[in-house]
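Chapter review. Work through the record for Phosphoribosylglycinamide formyltransferase before attempting the end-of-chapter questions.
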Amino acid sequence: MTRKRVAVLISGRGSNMSALIEACKDPAYPAEIVAVLSNKPDAAGLDVARSHGIEAIAVPQKDYASRAAHEEALNAELARIAPDVICLAGYMRLMSADFVAKWVGRIINIHPSLLPLFKGLDSHARVLESGMRVHGCTVHFVTAEMDGGPIIAQGVVPVMPGDTEEMLTARVLTVEHKLYPLALKLVAEGKVHMTDGRIVYSGLTEDDRTSFGAF
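Structure tokens for Phosphoribosylglycinamide formyltransferase:
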């Protein structure tokens, strides 16, 4: 089996990155993380990646006069690394349409809400304010629209009476750490891809279908 090359983009501690690293330790997993990149040189996740022997690269946005210049530098690093898939794991910077176009169908992201609900920041607080009784997370392909790409997989958690934002965040994060490795596995195996802005599934096994029901 040829494992797909994965680059992970982070801005902070990279807890979802760590979950992907753990999944990739299984020799049967169809992907391997070959590099971690961050727009913040002090991102704690860079040291985590290095501790696992993974190349860790800072491309600080503050070093560039414009988003276009920063993305050009990031693209240069990605071109050198030549990933098959790019995983955004807490990468807190919107990407331009030009950047997304270069990697269309190969960038995935995890967002802490049941998209298309609660796009953007502060999703947990907004869920609590809304009175929703369910919440969750979504893995989706990245398009030029923020949090608007086609959905690969979702995980659901209850919103419990008396929940604080911290309690709800922790509950959702536990599911994120399971869902993201599953979604990356399906993408790496070619069982899910994006065509004409839509999700296409092919060759799913009964085990794959059962995994979807675990969230």
